[in-house]
Amino acid sequence: MKKTVSIITGCYNEEDNVAGLTKAVAAVFEKLPQYEYEHIFIDNSSTDETVSILREITKTGKHVRIIVNATSARYARLSTECFSAKAMLLYTLLPIFRIPRIDY
After folding, report:
1. In this predicted structure, what is the pLDDT of residue 82?
2. Under CATH, which number does the domain 3-92 receive?
3. Helices (H) and strands (E) in the chain, counts
């Protein structure tokens, strides 16, 4: 029996990042066949196309679920929404899909 890992990502106006993050997480778990995973996105009332993009992803991505909050609670509801996870092991990821620039 495979162990399940829940990835939880809170987001607000992240239309440029959610698809890339979804693909990156899927690529990691392709290399870990001993694990099953679910990726839960918690949208906090985005005003851009984040929710539309996530809904399209859920049509083909069996591992992706979304929770859409009607009002913006930013990341305050993240701990409450963790109860929606199925796994015993949880990871939270920020949707910022960039490598930081470091100047020396």
Report:
1. 60
2. 3.90.550.10
3. 3, 4
How far apart are the C-alpha atoms of 10 and 45, rounded to whole Å? 11
Q: Tell me if 97 sits within 8 A of 27, measured CB to CB.
A: no
pLDDT digits (tens, 9 = 90+) for 20-72: 999 989 999 999 999 999 998 988 889 999 999 999 999 998 999 998 887 76
Alpha carbon distance 70, 24 (integer Å): 28
Q: What distance in Å separates the CA atoms of residue 42 and residue 21, rounded to the nearest whole number? A: 14
The answer to whether the pTM exceeds 0.85 is no
d(CA 61, CA 56): 9
**Other C-beta atoms within 10 Å of 81: how many?**
18
Report the chain's terminal Cα–Cα distance, integer Å: 48
For 64-81, the DSSP string reads EEEEEESS--TTTTHHHH
Q: Under a CB-based contact definition with an 8 Å cutoff, are residues 19 and 50 in contact? A: no
